[in-house]
Structures are given as C-alpha cells and as structure tokens.
Amino acid sequence: MKLAFEVKNIVFDLGGVLIDWRPCEYLLESFPEEVAKVLEKEIFKHEDWKLMDRGVLPENKLWEKKKRELSGFREYVERLEREVPELLRPIEENVKLLPALKRTFKLYALSNYGRIYFEMVRERYDFFELFDGMVISSHVGYLKPEKEIYLELIRRYKIVPEESLFIDDTPENVKTAREIGFRAVRLEKPSKLKEILVRELKIEL
Q: Buried b / exposed e across 134-157, counting CB within 10 Å, b at 16+?
C-alpha cells in the first residue's frame, strides 16, 4: 500500500525565496549605523509594516506617517521610500527553475506583500504568469503565519495540503504550514532552493 502522498503542487513564498528581500542588510550597507538601527526598528520591524502587508495601511500612507514620526531622519526616510522598490528584484537562479517545475507541478504563491508593491513586481516580472494561483496578504486581510491565509489558498484553489510542498524562509510560516498538513520546508538561504526541490521532489533540475 502506498502511504506517502504524491506532491502535485509547489507553494512558494515570494520574499527571500523568489524575490530578493534583505532590507536590514541594505540599511547597514547604505546608511550610517545609528540611522540604520532606527529605520529598521521604526519601519521594517514596526507594526505599521505588518499593517501595510495586511492591506490596512497603503504604502504611500505608511511613508507619509514615517516622515512625520521620524522628522529628524526625514531625508533618510525619503531616500528609503525611493529605493525600496528597487530592492524587489527576482532571485534569478531560483526564478529560472519555475518553467521546468511548471511542466510537472502546479505552482502557487502565498506571500505577505503590500498591495502597491505586489502589483509593481507582478507587472514588472513575467515569471508571475507561471503561477496557477496566488494568495497575497494585502488582498485577503490575513498574514502568514495566521492559519486563515493558508486556508484561503486551500479553499480558493482546491489544494490538498498533503499533496503540496510549501517553501518559505520564515520558521513560523513553515510551522503553521506543517500544522495544516503541508509538506513544508524552510529555505534558510536562497541559493539552497534547487537543492531542496531536488531532494524533496526526487527530480532532476
């Protein structure tokens, strides 16, 4: 009797898996250390960023709020506002794997992303056309690792979690996926994606 489920679907996180997203590294490389610490705490690690990802606080309103609150750092905040969109670039070595995977598996995206930034990258990069479906936090009002966003993916696309490989760079997101029944793996380094896919799916790429 065959006990193991055959994997039919691959569910990708975007940031840190298919799209480069290392804002804290960027801050340390681009700003004085004391400024980088403030911007990291008050922007990227602030609850407001989660509100943006949830679709409650639009990107333009977030930046207006930060320029008011961090008036002493306004020039740095304005620079950050201009440059963040340019940080959102595909991880080319990983995106190149998608066409081959598409021949065998259904591909999905499940990601925390602000509405404006998501629409920007979707219009800019054609690899999004390879997905059979996407659930984005700002479109549904839920964030990973909240179970509701995973259940929305399952409901919307009739996905069987046990037939799905879920790949994310955040431990909490992987933990919730496993609790729901996904075969879930944490991607600790973007360069390890091919290795994980070959190992978990028993395929050549």
A: bbbbbeeebbbbbeebbebbbeeb
Q: Does the pTM of the predicted model rise above 0.90?
A: yes
Coil vs helix vs strand at 107: strand
If DSSP codes are grouped into helix, strand and coil, which group holds residue 42?
A: helix
Single out the residue of 42, 16, 27, 8 nearest to residue 160, CA to CA: 8
Q: CB-based contacts of 89: which residues, under 8 Å, 6+ apart?
A: 19, 20
For the chain, what's the residue count? Answer: 205
**Backbone phi and psi for residue 188, each to the nearest 5 degrees, phi listed first:** -80, -30
Q: pLDDT (tens digit, 9 = 90+) per residue, 23-42?
A: 999 999 999 999 999 999 99
Phi, psi (5° rounding) for residue 108? -135, 155
User: Does the N-terminal peptide bond of residue 99 adopt cis geometry, omega within 30 degrees of 0?
Assistant: no
Sheet containing strand 183-186, strands side by side: 133-136, 106-111, 9-12, 164-168, 183-186
pLDDT at residue 2, rounded to an integer: 39
Tokens of 53: 């990802």
